[in-house]
Amino acid sequence: MISISEAISIVKSNSTTLLESCYKLVEKAGGYILSEDVKSPINMPPFRQSAMDGYALNLHDDLTYQLIGEVKAGDALNPPLKPGEAVRIFTGAAVPDAANAVMMQEKVENQGKTINIVHQIDLELNIRPLGEQVKTGDIALKKGTKLTPAAIGYLLSLGITHVNVYRKPKIALVTTGNELVEPGQDLTYGKIYESNSKMLLSALYNLKFYDITTYKVEDDYKQTVSTLKAAVDENDLVLITGGISVGEYDFVGKALKILEVKEHFYKVAQKPGKPLFYGKKEDTQIFALPGNPAAALTCFYVYVYIALQQFMNREALELPRTEGISRSTFKKRGDRPQFLKAIYNDGQVDILEGQNSSMLHTFALSNALVFMPGELNVISENDKVNVILLPN
Ligand SMILES: Nc1nc2c(c(=O)[nH]1)N[C@H]1C(S)=C(S)[C@@H](COP(=O)(O)OP(=O)(O)OC[C@H]3O[C@@H](n4cnc5c(N)ncnc54)[C@H](O)[C@@H]3O)O[C@H]1N2
Ligand code: MOO
After folding, report:
1. How far is the CA of 229 from the centre of ligand 2 (A)?
2. Which pTM was predicted?
3. Fewest C-beta in 10 Å: which of 151, 163, 332, 354?
4. Domain MoaB/Mog, which positions (predicted)?
5. 236 CB less than 6 Å from ligand 1?
6. CA distance 363 to 108
7. Smallest Cα–Cα separation from 256: which of 271, 247, 265, 26?
8. Could you tell me how far CA 4 lies from the centroid of its own chain?
9. How far is the CA of 194 from the centre of ligand 1 (A)?
C-alpha cells in the first residue's frame, strides 16, 4: 500500500499530454487549448469606431459646429468635414476620416443646423482607433491559450471560424456488477440502481470532456476481459468502477493483468478509496476506482483529475486547496488519512455526516473535501483544516 502523495506523484509522472491537434469550429472549442498561434485576419476594430452616441467633430477653436450629416452603425459613409463641421454619430459607427473627436450627446446642445459643445475636447476622444485590440497579421491568441467564453467571443469578433486545438482524450467509463439496474427500471430485491457511470459522466462533462463511451459488464471474468480489452484498445483513458477488491467476483484486477496492463499502483493508504488501481497499457491510462460511489468520486477528484489536466497541458494539475476553520468536530477511526465531505464557505468549514464511502447523500451537498492526515484522530471546532475545493 502506498501513500497518497506517492500515488499522486506516480499519476503526475505517468500521465501524458495529448499533443495531436484537431481542427474545430470555434463555437465548439470552449475549454480546448490552442495548439498554434492564431493570427488576426483583420484589424480590430476594422475602422475608427465611435464609442459614444454623439457628434463627430473636425475640431476648431470655437464651441459651435455646423451639422452636415449623420453616420449610423453599419453605414458605409465617410463624409468629408471641414474644421468646424460635425456629423451626428452613433456608438459603433465608422468615424469619418476627417473627424478627430466624438463628443457625447449629453454634452452637446443641438440648435438644428448647428450644435454647441459645452467645453473643448481632446483629440481622438471617444474614438476607438483602428486595430486598437489587434492589427492584421498580428498574433491574436498564442499557442497554449485556453479557450474561455471570452476567447471564443474574441476569435469570432475577428471573423475566425475554425482553430487548431489539442485534441481531448477519448474516455471509457466501465461499470461492473450483477447488482446494477438502470434507473427507471424496477428495483428487485438485492439490486441497486447504477449511479457511478452517470455521476462520472457528469463530472467529466463538467470539466468539458465529452468524448466518452460507457461500457457495462456483469461479474463475469470472460465478459470483463473482453470489455476491458475493447475499452483499453479504443481509448486514451479508462475509468472502471467496482470489482477491484478481493472478493471471488471481483474480476477487474485479474482481467487487467491478463490484458498486460502495467500496474503502477494498487491500494493507497486512504479513506475512502483504498483499493484504487492505476496502470497503463502503452499510452492508455487505466484507473480502477472502487465501486462505492463516494470512494469512486473522491478518487476521481484527487487522482483522475490530474490525468485529465495533464492531457490538456494545463498548468494546475490538482484541484485548488485552501485552509479553513472547522465549525464541526470529527473523530476518525483507524490511521488512514481521510478525505471528508464538507461545505466550505468564506474560510469556514462544516464537515458533514455520512462519511461512509457508500454514501452520496451528504456528498450531494458538498463543495469541498477536508483532508485529514493519518496521524490526526480528531478535528475539533476552530481547528485549522486543509480543504480541497471541488469544481462547481
Ligand atoms: N475483504 C475485504 N473486503 C473489502 C475490502 C478489503 O480490503 N477487504 N475493501 C473494501 C473497500 S474499502 C471498498 S472501497 C470496496 C471496493 O470494492 P470494489 O471496488 O470491488 O467494488 P464492488 O464490490 O463492486 O462494489 C462496492 C459497492 O459499490 C456499489 N457499486 C458498485 N458499482 C456501482 C455503480 N456503478 N453504481 C452504484 N453503486 C455501485 C456496489 O453495489 C457495492 O455496494 O471493497 C470493500 N471490501
Ligand atoms: O476505500 Mo473504501 O472506499 O474505504 O470504502
Report:
1. 26
2. 0.82
3. 354
4. 172-310
5. no
6. 60
7. 265
8. 25
9. 13
